[in-house]
Structures are given as structure tokens and as C-alpha cells.
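Sequence and structure are no longer studied apart. As an example, we show below a sequence and the C-alpha cells encoding its fold:
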Amino acid sequence: MTERQAPGREPVGGWATERRVAEKEAGGHPRHALAPLLTAPVRLSVMAALVAAEKAEFAFVRDLVEISDSVLSKQLAALEEAGWLEVRKVRAGRRVRTWVSLTGEGREAYARHLAALRAITGGG
């Protein structure tokens, strides 16, 4: 029992009240709204890197997230399969450049995931 909690009663006010309201609206604990695909730190980092941009080049994302080409390729494939991002290859002279961008569904999934994290942590 805490100072803010009477015997047999729930905490009063503050983040505890906000959290209970969010839980009732969502139909349970906010963790149920987390996107399992985004619980992997690398995929979450890739989504965060792309959310602010219309599109980004593969090498830029790789360097920003600090991972290898093969790791990024694998994570992009998983996100693309989920329908959360689009991968486009564009010929630039003799070179092929790979561009990635979030889909509308990907942006929504990312926003829902962040909202669930905030609800869990009491971050508003």
C-alpha cells in the first residue's frame, strides 16, 4: 500500500489514473497494443529513422542505425513483408541505389507502438 492508496482502493490521480483510463479504452493492458515486429531494437531504430523522412537511401539508414548491410537487408525484408515499408531500386548510371520509405500502414503501426510504450511507462 502506498501513501496515495487507501486499503482496498486503487491509486488516486496522476499517471495511475491516466493509465487505467488508457487500459480501459484499449481493452486491457497497453502492452497488448505493442507491435511484436517492433520489439526488436534494430527494427524499431529503422522505423524511427524513416518516420521523419519521405524516403531514405539504404546506406544512410545503415550508417544511422550503425548496422551492417546484411543485417539491414534482413530487417527491411521483415518490415516490407509486413507491408510497413517499400523498397525501391533506382538505377543511377551504372550503380543501383536502394531507397526505402514507410507506407501509411507502417507509419500508423509505429505511432500505435509508441503510444503503447508511453502508456506503459506513464510518459503521456
Summary: The helical segments are 14-26, 41-51, 58-65, 69-81, 104-121. The chain has a mean pLDDT of 85. Residues 16 and 112 are 20 Å apart (CA to CA). The two ends are 24 Å apart (CA to CA).
